[in-house]
Amino acid sequence: MTIRRPAHVLDIPPFRRLWMAMSASSLGDWLTLLALSALAAQLTAAHGYQAQAAAVGGVFVAKLLPALVLGPLAGPLTVRLDRRLTMLVADLVRVALVASVPLVGLYQWVVAAAFLIECATLFWVPARDATVPALVPKERLEEATRLGVLVTYGTAPVAALLFTVLTTAGPWMVAGGALAYLVSAVWVFTLRGLPRRGGAASTPSVLEGWRASGGDRVAGGVRAGLLATVAAGGALIGVSVLSGPVAYGVVFGALFVGVAVGLFFGPRVLTQLSRSRLFGVSVIAVGAALVVIALVRDQSVVVMLTVVLGLCAGVAWRVGLEVLDGPHMEPVARVTLLLAAAVVAPAAGLAGGALLALIAMGGLMMVVGALALRRVDDRKGVSLSEDMLAALRGERYTPGDVEKVPGVFIAFEGGEGSGKTTQSRLLAIWLRDQGFDVVQTREPGSTKVGMRLRAILLDAAEKGLSPRAEALMYAADRAEHVEKVIRPALERGALVITDRYVDSSLAYQGAGRALDPADVAEVNAWATSELVPHLTVLIDTPPSVGLTRLGGAADRIESEPLEFHERVRNEFRSLAGAAPERYLVVDGTLPLDEISRTVQDRVREILPDPVPSESEDITGTMPAIRD
Q1: Model confidence at 475: pLDDT above 50
Q2: Domain identity same for 237 and 282
């Protein structure tokens, strides 16, 4: 009997019920955040603007504290509890707390309820994350995770719309959040047959998320830029609540509609601009939009600018998460959002209005964006303005001093034992079979000088070679390689396939040896006259697998510890994520022929026309042959 595999992960009934509970719970979280912060402003309105601002800041602080104080404990504790019962109890507790707020009617209880609701959520989320692997096959986990992220942020505009309608109910505007939590509890109750305990919650704490999102220079720049966009959104939320509940709901909804559009259209924006540059420009644009919003008085214009701010933030996140691990960044982003709102709202109260607070925050975000761009920029020395103008015209900007070549340049990159050497050889054989002029080469050691440098660089006895000397020797080999082998072949129109190129120096010497990537990039840009491959194929193989494939005595690089090779792999992946239009990333653990087919399919897209244009011109004048 053939077992029919579900066409979509939502075709799995237990997961579909859990997903409905996740949707209702996320909707309740957003509705509760909106209602409690707005209610805090209403309950303190009689005490003046400063008191309102401080009260709103107090609610955001109350929502923030549990993640910082209890976050590291909630996950490990939750996996010891019954998952279904934990989610059910957490939902019912949140229903009771939200419903009690209008009954008590005191600002102090609003803050206390916000704190306790967030504590309950800290148990609900890890229980949910530990439940998903029990309901979904391993090969569908990534799809299930994407759906989880979709409901987490996709329910925000819906919550804003519902909240705007509920503002007419006065203190009972919180009822929407209570109802959403109740619906979540009903869906959780329908889940049957779950393992009661065990597993591991996949949601990291804030500190774990910060560490897991990467520590190299590029990852640090991306992380700072992403959190800057979140902080800008949090600042806008923190001050808009002081404008009244209706305006608050509209601005909140406009922000997340813009984010959703940016996340969806991110890969389609300025496709000829380096992804690293697009990221940095988007972060700067978020800060600039916040400054302009502070200066504008017309509410309709503010709403349009808020959509623009959200759109730029969405683009930055879509591009940035290609470099960083999205799930690890989620708790850090949530804390940043609440922290920015908690700081900016009281600051606006002290300043007597939102103007100075938003201008200061926007200016700070622009500085952070500029610093992030400086860290991640992969086209240093190339005019950013010219690059952007060319991208707006749908073109890739090439500086005038960079020589254009008629050939095609393909580089293979990867860690030790990744299989890149084998795949570069197989591609060269395949292309020669198609009749192309192919030059297959490698680094280091494809020239007479390079052979001597290779002997020094890979000699296991040369343990005392300093990282800077190593980087300069690789750059010297590369300069000779480009001058004597690669460029002459490209000038005659050949297809050049190299086993390693500049990215290897950025990964091995930049990340592996902990040198400044900007220095390594600058030296190699000068050594190669900024010659960039048309395509870089990254054979991505875990070092724990690749190192076992090596035969014979390990050379100086291969004998480095596993941590070194992990840093190298992470940097390769970061480089590919920063410029996906120029990279093909292939899983190196796949069968050999499957990897070859994937590479061939991608290379076909950049192969030159086999019929020269001169021949086409001649044949185009020949009369048609008729029967």
Answers
A1: yes
A2: yes
